[in-house]
Specification:
The complex is a heterodimer of chains A (257) and B (262). The longest helix of chain A has 39 residues. Chain A is flat. Helix content of chain A is 81%, strand content 0%. Chain A has 257 residues and is mostly helical. Chain A has a domain of 155 residues: MetI-like fold. By secondary structure, chain B is α/β, with parallel strands linked by helices. In chain B, 35% of the residues lie in helices and 24% in strands. Chain B is built from 9 helices and 12 strands. In chain B, strands 8-9-10-3-11-12 form a 6-stranded mixed sheet, with helices on both faces. A 4-stranded antiparallel sheet of chain B has the order 2-1-4-5, covered by helices on one side. In chain B, strand 11 and strand 12 form a beta hairpin. In chain B, helix 3 packs parallel to helix 5. The chains are: A mainly alpha (257), B alpha/beta (262). Chains A and B meet through helix 9 and helix 10 of A and helix 2, strand 8, helix 3 and helix 5 of B.
């Protein structure tokens, strides 16, 4: 994009409007609470980001085999994967999180072996349940996406690899998986943002993410709109980061053949 | 090329090859053999089984049964699983043999996420275990031979069909195959792009490469092949030198076929 096309009249007007709105908000609204909570907010942003990134990474690592076995078989595994995806996609993630935290989490104390194990300090915290629930949810949705992606790679490209004597795992690693991921990249950006917007649910099981922090700020300061606006801005910026990263990534890759 | 190696053992030898898709038998006992340096054209109408025959040679299709399937001097054994699907018994042997048979497809099938250079390097590194430097040098030589030196850092989607197919030929040549299999390599090309691909293939034939070519290009087959095999309804109807097949066809089917394409 050249400079000329950037400084167009309608852009200038929009920018002036945006500046005016931000200035009005900054000057006329009550932001006095902000300094006191700055450290808490930064911590909470870190918690939200960590939950988001870790659940995406772990969930995607699960989604690849879940998608793959539905295309290649063996059949029992394909059915299992299909059942998992159906269950995850057919129930609210809030319910899944509560089943894990209040259901499973409340059963663990009755298992004495568990209480002595190294896992116990983690099992009495809330965040591992949040992490597992977010991971399973992402794996369920992306497993379905990856199934379609694996299936959509033209068979001839895989045949060419077979015909030249490649090992099936080499084909998967070098051809099939990269091609499948390339095909879902535009979808994936949207899915990452949806995952970001699923993270506030962890506040319901006492994980202090940004959503929870702003709830506390509202309770303690009796201010309603300013914290909510701030919260919206933070989510917008996080989503913007994801969208920006994906745009960079898509520009680096060749167009689909 | 013809004649000079005819005493040598065949590099590909198939006897009584059968293949069914479901209840439809598409190959009804094919015999075929290729000696080193020989160029064989498989011709026939659509549905005659010529592509299936070719795909059975590197086991992209598993034959339903064979009397004998001998590739590069090694016999390949088949087995049938519980659901009645045929497999090659020894997968490792199959991969080794496939890496010595180059295959060129009608639809090119270059890998779109790799540049042309990477496409040609890939199997050298992943299958033959060559270093990247060796593979790159070899890729540059091969791409020069097919006239694509200027395009080596382009992706397949940026190339014309003819360029893609020439690239696919370079990719198949990269593993130094002893036999090249061509499955209608010009059928998906615009007419004006056919010539450049046929030229590359002609050069390969003149180098003395063993080639088996499924093609609709009768002029090319007549010019380049040592032996032409005419398939009809899953059987070898007639085979012989290009002169015998095109100038003096014996069977009525072949006479009809030549009239219809000529």
């Amino acid at each position: 994009m050249s400079d000329q096309s950037f400084w167009q009249p309608h852009r200038l007007i929009l920018m002036a409007l945006a500046t005016a709105i931000v200035l009005t908000m900054a000057l006329n609204m009550d932001w006095s609470w902000l300094p006191a909570y700055r450290a808490d907010i930064l911590d909470a942003i870190w918690i939200t980001s960590a939950l988001l990134v870790s659940s995406i990474v772990a969930g995607f690592l699960l989604a690849v085999p879940i998608g793959l076995v539905q295309v290649t078989g063996p059949r029992p595994l394909a059915w299992l994967a299909y059942g998992f995806c159906t269950l995850i996609r057919g129930t609210p993630i809030l319910l899944q999180m509560w089943v894990l935290y209040y259901g499973l989490g409340s059963l663990f104390p009755y298992i004495p072996e568990l209480r002595q194990s190294w896992l116990w300090p983690y099992l009495i915290e809330a965040w591992p349940y949040a992490f597992v629930a977010l991971t399973l949810s992402f794996a369920g949705y992306e497993g379905e996406v990856m199934r379609g992606a694996f299936k959509g790679v033209p068979h001839g490209e895989l045949e060419a690899a077979e015909a030249i004597g490649m090992h099936p795992f080499t084909i998967l690693r070098r051809i099939w998986l990269p091609r499948a991921i390339q095909r879902v990249l535009p979808t994936l950006g949207g899915e990452f943002i949806l995952q970001l917007k699923a993270t506030p649910l962890v506040a319901t099981i006492a994980v202090v993410d940004i959503y929870a922090i702003f709830g506390r700020i509202r309770q303690e300061t009796f201010i309603t709109y300013e914290p909510l606006l701030m919260l919206a801005l933070i989510y917008l910026m996080l989503a913007g980061c994801i969208a920006f990263l994906f745009r960079l990534l898509e520009n680096k890759l060749p167009s689909r053949g | 090329m013809q004649g000079q190696h005819h005493s040598a053992a065949p590099v590909i030898e198939v006897r009584d090859l059968h293949k069914s898709f479901g209840s439809v038998e598409v190959l009804k006992g094919i015999d075929l053999s290729a000696r080193p340096g020989e160029v064989i054209s498989l011709i026939g109408g659509s549905g005659s089984g010529k592509s299936t025959t070719l795909r059975c040679l590197n086991l992209l299709e598993t034959p339903t049964s064979t009397g004998l399937l001998k590739l590069l001097g090694e016999e390949v054994h088949l087995k049938t699983d519980r659901r009645g699907v045929g497999h090659v018994s020894n997968k490792k042997q199959l991969r080794r043999l496939r890496s010595r048979l180059g295959m060129v497809f009608q639809s090119f099938n270059l890998w779109p996420h790799m540049t042309l250079e990477q496409n040609v390097m890939e199997a050298q590194v992943q299958v033959l275990g060559r270093t990247k430097t060796q593979a790159r040098d070899n890729a540059h030589q091969l791409l020069e031979r097919v006239g694509l030196t200027e395009r080596l850092s382009m992706f397949p989607s940026q190339l014309s069909g003819g360029q893609q197919q020439r690239g696919a030929i370079a990719r198949a040549l990269a593993v130094d195959p002893e036999v090249m299999l061509f499955d209608e390599p010009t059928s998906a090309l615009d007419p004006e792009l056919v010539g450049e691909v046929l030229n590359v293939m002609k050069n390969l034939a003149e180098e003395g490469r063993t080639m088996i070519i499924v093609t609709h290009e009768m002029k090319f087959a007549a010019e380049v092949a040592d032996k032409v095999v005419f398939l009809n309804q899953g059987r070898v109807e007639e085979e012989g030198t290009p002169e015998e097949i095109f100038q003096a066809p014996k069977s009525e089917r072949l006479q009809q076929f030549i009239r219809s394409v000529g």
